[in-house]
Predict the 3D structure of the following.
Amino acid sequence: MSQLLRAVLVAGLVAVAAADQLSLVWIAGFVLLSGLLATFAEAGQAKAVARTVAPGDVGGAYGALQATDSAAGVVVPAVAGVLLTETGAPTALSVSAALALSGGLALLSRSWPATRTVEEGLRQRSLRAGAVAFLREAEDGFSLVWTSRRLRHLTVASFLLGLGLAAYSAVESIYVLRDLDVAVVHFGLIVSAGAVGGLIGSVASGRFVRRFGRIRLTQLTFVLTVLSALLLFVPLFAPEIAVVVLAVQFFLWGAFVVANNVQVAALVMQTVPENAIGRVMATRRTATMGSILLGSLVGGALGGAAGTVWVLVLFVGLLVGAAAFAFRAD
């Protein structure tokens, strides 16, 4: 249902853009509602996986789903950028609406095993009854995450990772284009290297699970993420190789972060019982969105007050903290 609602939402935006009434208010409202629907879709995907595969295969199946999603997240924006440039925003949005509609209809066309218990059905009815029940569900989700050692530490690790990434993203273009004086065309190549790394990370991460185990591989990706972030300081001392070093850093960063996201998602699915998946996913999504908001504000403020180098220091410090919590999740 969330997919169909997203299709309607995008179609509405197309109509507003075609009528030449598009404004910042419309865009902000679209982003807000789209984010809410994405949260519902993520929780629904998780529950669908839990209902369609054997209990012992849930982590691997959801990891494969996340890998596919991450790969699409690398390829689709590039295609969308070309489509936007060649045809304009209304056409690109129309294609987006058509894809969302196709996905929603494909999901509705198959039958899903109904495994709801009576207790879960009552809980869902009380959720629809009012805000009090909604707050109770939110409290349950937080409690489920906090009382599980693995979920608690993985959630904190993901929060710190998102916080650091958002803080750095707030000043990334300033650091690369202004401080390091990298040409715009070279910056485009650097970002493309990151996209290639993300694609490889999404595809290859599953192959290493059998060798290291999922929890060890997750911890390893956190450590490798920290090491790749340290490469950002190299151009400060050797500006003549800035483009090469940054291309390597973006490639490694894309591979390790995407691989990390895939493995953390699979670990969460392995840990959470099916009747709690929606609440746990919503809680983790809230923490992720909160980290992006807070990190962007802190990164921009610190960069403006003290300079981009101090944002890099904060960035690496938060990644170290994330890795420390990941090792405590064992």
Confidence is low (pLDDT under 50) at residues 115-127.
